[in-house]
Amino acid sequence: MVQVKLSEKFCVPRYEGFEEILEPLVRRITGSQQGRVRTGCDFRNEVFIMKMHFYGKCPCSYGKKLHEFEKENEHDVECFHTQWFELDQAFRNHPKYSQALILKTERINAEMQLCRKYRIPYHGGSYIENICTCDFKKKWDMLNVEHDEDCPLIAPNFYHAPSGLKIWWNKKFFRDSYSNRRIEKKEFQKIIGECLRSI
Ligand SMILES: [Zn+2]
Ligand SMILES: [Zn+2]
Predict the structure, then answer these.
(1) Residues whose beta carbons lie less than 5 angstroms from ion ligand 2
(2) pTM
């Protein structure tokens, strides 16, 4: 298994057996014998914590500071972010948006065109709405604001207290996943065994 070090983060590759190891733990907690369980569940005891993806807005001091910052600062009219937001609104507000497939195709074309104009690679996905080509993001980044340690937006999806192992994923097990240290499958199996016995 290859794990790449990204500052203090280590990639946990998907489809290498980690999912199969974690699934029985979720099934034990939720009592679900069949069906998909790969979004995880919310559970905590003294041995481990499991947490589903958090969909809300940041509820910690970071969110409050960002809100204050947004009151005083704006993206430029010419910033990619502003243009993207306008495009998004135009399509969303269209009365036939949800039914009309043709509008969706049109939207993709409009998105691609906008990206071409700004020379931004287009792969679809939500990363794009965070791209800023004005000073807004630079100014915000210079403030070095960090999330509180217990903010659900940055909390790991899996935490094993005895070993200190933390793993994050994106909505489903091991999608875009990383951990706070190198972890081999064998050790992970041992850790999950310990979690199973703790319930
Ligand atoms: Zn901007
Ligand atoms: Zn936060």
Answers:
(1) 58, 60, 62, 147, 151, 153
(2) 0.69
